[in-house]
Amino acid sequence: MKSILNNKFVAWLIAILIIANVATLVFFWVGHIKNQRDNSPKEFLAKKLNFNEIQKNAYFDLAKAHNENAKIIRDQIKINKDHFFQLLKSDTVIDSSRNNAALQVSLSIQSLDILTFEHFKKVRALCTKEQKPIFDELIQKMVNSVNNPQRGFQPSIKEDTRH
Q1: Is the model's pLDDT at 160 over the cut of 60?
Q2: CA atoms within 13 A on the CB side of 59
Q3: In Å, what is the CA distance from 161 to each residue of 88, 123, 139, 157?
Q4: Is the sign of the CA dihedral 82, 83, 89, 92 positive or negative?
Q5: Exposure winner among 43, 52, 84, 101, fewest CB in 10 A?
């Protein structure tokens, strides 16, 4: 009889521990997703520029459209790079084929850069006269970080709040 009670107790204990582990994992997973959303570059820029609700909504719509279009171009870049590096499988590669494949990669990267430029031009147009200098400074920091990856620019809402 004591053995049966012991087994039930152990079974309940194991069940409670499993439930506690699952609840902990869900808690951390939900917290991680919320933290990622709250610290996204989109949220960072909206907070740093102190966008009002109308500006924020317009900006988030622009960002959504930009991300959708950028994904299409990034997929094309991947295809073009795959094609370019497939040429390595051949023992003899004609210079014109290599150059054409490299050009296709460059053109797709160029179209992504232009799309991004136009996106930020639209975002800047949402800014007030007071917000534009802050926007210009933030964009310059981002450009500098891309050109100097050792230093990097990791946007965070928690960083310097002088503005």
Answers
A1: no
A2: 23
A3: 50, 21, 16, 8
A4: negative
A5: 52
Contacts of 102 (CB under 8 A, 6+ apart): 84
Nearest alpha-carbon partner for 3 in 64, 11, 41: 11
Classify residue 20: in a domain, yes or no: no
Q: What is the DSSP secondary-structure string of 91-102?
A: SS--HHHHHHHH
CATH number of the domain encompassing residue 123? 1.20.120.1490
CA pair distance 26, 67, nearest whole angstrom: 28
User: What is the per-residue pLDDT across 10-34, written as a single tens digit (0 to 9) for each?
Assistant: 777 788 888 888 887 877 776 655 5
The answer to whether residue 9 sits within a structural domain is no
> CA 82 from chain center: how many Å?
22
pTM of the shown model:
0.66
Range of the domain at 51: 39-147
